[in-house]
Design a protein that fits this description.
By secondary structure, the protein is α/β, with parallel strands linked by helices. Helices cover 41% and strands 23% of the residues. The strands form 2 sheets. Strands 1, 2, 3, 4, 5, 8, 9 and 10 form an 8-stranded mixed beta sheet that branches. Strand 1, helix 3 and strand 2 form a beta-alpha-beta unit. It starts with 9 loop residues before the first helix and ends with a strand.
């Protein structure tokens, strides 16, 4: 079983990066920092790195020299990540970057050997239970912490409310749990599955909320997210299409007027070896 590639637009990743940075649970970095203290080189493996937003967020919060190994399927995203890599840590020590074009669900334990930290962002919901299990086992075998951020949990709150909010959300969540080829995606069940797998493997698991909070200041992101959210719901339930398109236009008009507030719930997970 091999993961089917999912094309991700660099423009979408750029649009969401500020919201991602604001949402991630910064207090987990405080829990993590003692594990990385010292003058030795910190080696960080970032799985499904996209354009490298995790590195740009985390590297300046950690002291000492760092070497990031960035994994993704998409060579264009890897190139952008390398071009826009952070160049200094919290205390001014150098940060270097190496890219690896890989299927991250098939990483061997040998590839992660020697890691100081393993990271990922907005990844778990696109994986199957078997794939999450392999990643969890590889992280535990590496004997280092893992910081896995921004996993959706299937809960969206919007103000003002609309009668179709729940219907669209339910259809979207079903779409995230869809079967793609021979892969049954976890979608919003990924966090619970990941916590369970790391726990059974002996990891010390810490969980924090990391919600997106979108409003008039992030209207462009809200509109782009809303369009994709509704489109996925319609793909899952074709009978919703006519009503959903009217819903989308209402919601986009509200967002354009600066009157739509969205809270999109995520959870961040930090796993430490016991």
């Amino acid at each position: 079983m091999t993961a089917t590639p999912v094309a991700v637009s660099p423009d979408w990743l750029a649009l969401r990066e500020p919201a991602d940075a604001a949402a991630r649970a910064a207090d987990l970095v405080e829990v993590l920092r003692p594990w990385l203290a010292g003058d030795e080189l910190t080696i960080i493996h970032d799985l499904g790195c996209g354009t490298g937003s995790m590195g740009r967020w985390l590297a300046p919060q950690l002291a000492g020299p760092q070497h990031w190994l960035l994994y993704d399927r998409d060579p264009e995203l890897l190139a952008r990540a390398a071009e826009n890599a952070p160049d200094a840590s919290a205390d001014g020590a150098p940060v270097t970057v190496e890219t690896r074009q890989r299927d991250i669900t098939r990483l061997s334990r040998d590839e992660l050997a020697g890691a100081s930290l393993i990271t990922a962002s907005a990844l778990l919901d696109m994986l199957t239970a078997d794939e999450v299990g392999r990643i969890a086992a590889s992280c535990i075998a590496a004997g280092c912490p893992a910081l896995l951020t921004l996993s959706v949990v299937g809960v969206v709150e919007m103000t003002p409310a609309d009668p179709l909010d729940w219907t669209i959300a339910e259809a979207f969540n079903l779409h995230q749990r869809r079967t793609s080829g021979d892969r049954r995606l976890l979608g919003p069940d990924a966090v619970e599955a990941t916590i369970d797998m790391f726990g059974r493997l002996g990891g010390d698991v810490h969980v924090r909320p990391s919600p997106w909070r979108l409003d008039a200041a992030t209207a462009a992101l809200a509109a782009e997210w809303l369009t994709g959210w509704v489109d996925a719901a319609c793909e899952q339930r074709l009978e919703l299409t006519e009503a959903a398109l009217d819903y989308r236009e209402r919601r986009l008009a509200t967002a354009a007027a600066g009157q739509l507030a969205v809270t999109l719930h995520h959870l961040d997970i930090l796993v430490r070896p016991r």
